[in-house]
Amino acid sequence: MNFLEERIVKDGIVKEGNVLKVDSFLNHQMDIKLLNQMGAEFKKRFADKNINKILTIEASGIGIACIVAEHFDVPVVFAKKSQSINLDGEMYVAEVESFTHKCKNNVIVSQKFLSEDDHVLIIDDFLANGCALQGLIQIVQSSGATVEGIGIAIEKGFQSGGRIIRNLGFQLESLAIVDGMDASTGQIFFREQDAE
Ligand code: 5GP
After folding, report:
1. Ligand 1 mean position to 189 CA, how many Å?
2. CB 104 less than 6 A from any atom of ligand 1
3. What's the gap in Å between 123 CA and the centre of ligand 1?
4. How far is CA 129 from the centre of its chain?
5. 62 lines ligand 1 (CB under 6 A)
6. pLDDT over 60 (residue 35)
7. Which one, out of 23, 32, 50, 152, has a CA that is 20 to 30 A from the CA of 144?
8. What is the rounded distance in angstroms from the CA atom of residue 107 to the CA atom of residue 171?
9. In the predicted model, is pLDDT for residue 64 greater than 90?
10. Is the CB–ligand 1 distance for residue 60 below 6 Å?
11. pLDDT for 65-96, tens place per residue?
């Protein structure tokens, strides 16, 4: 098990409905040392990429993305969620369905902060069905920028997002891939990955 998998086993809580709660260290209270380790690991996995911007989505991606950005020495842009369709012409907009909140949001990024010159690493805390990621990819592509890679803390490998995104040809790196969870016992099963 790698450092993140060990922490998930120690402090993660399996909830009904295929939800893994990691709010004691990742997306509510945040363990900055752990986030730093994650940043170093993403830097290693994307070492051959010329990344000049990190893109994430509010709210829970922001903390992780900021620490990762420190390792790449680049700025972070986060997509804002908005119910409003009353947007002016200077925004990139994509529609995203929320796995946890079961609703649809427009996610928006100002055109000022993404352009065809950008080489983007997308970062998020979870990958489930891939809706959030597909929204972010769509935003990058509408700006003319390049998606250099995607870094995820926890991928739920039993949901379809990882397969869809990899099939699209993107370099998707998930630090922990959960292939199964049992809410009655609290057991979590990880996919074997190459040792770091
Ligand atoms: P997707 O769009 O891939 O279906 O879902 C990704 C988003 O849903 C992530 O940004 C994350 O915030 C949230 N999410 C999905 N599954 C889980 C989960 O098991 N636990 C938590 N805490 N968030 C999740």
Report:
1. 18
2. no
3. 13
4. 12
5. no
6. yes
7. 152
8. 23
9. yes
10. yes
11. 999 999 999 999 999 987 555 556 599 999 98
Give the chain's radius of gyration (CA, Å).
16
Instruction: Give the separation between CA 139 and CA 65, rounded to whole angstroms.
Output: 17
**Ligand 1 in reach of 135 Cβ (< 6 A):** no
Question: What's the pLDDT band for 194 if we cut at 50, 70, 90?
Answer: confident
Atom of ligand 1 nearest to the CA of 97: 2
ipTM: 0.95
Compute the distance between CA of residue 148 and CA of residue 160 in angstroms, rounded to an integer: 21
**Nearest ligand 1 atom, CA 130:** 3
* Chain segment 152-193, per-residue pLDDT in tens: 999 999 999 999 999 999 999 999 999 999 999 999 999 998
The domains found in the chain, sorted by start residue, are 3-190 (3.40.50.2020)
pLDDT for the residue numbered 83: 58
CA 100 to centroid of ligand 1, rounded, Å: 6
Q: How far is the CA of 150 from the centre of ligand 1 (A)?
A: 15
> Are 73 and 92 within 8 A, CB to CB?
no
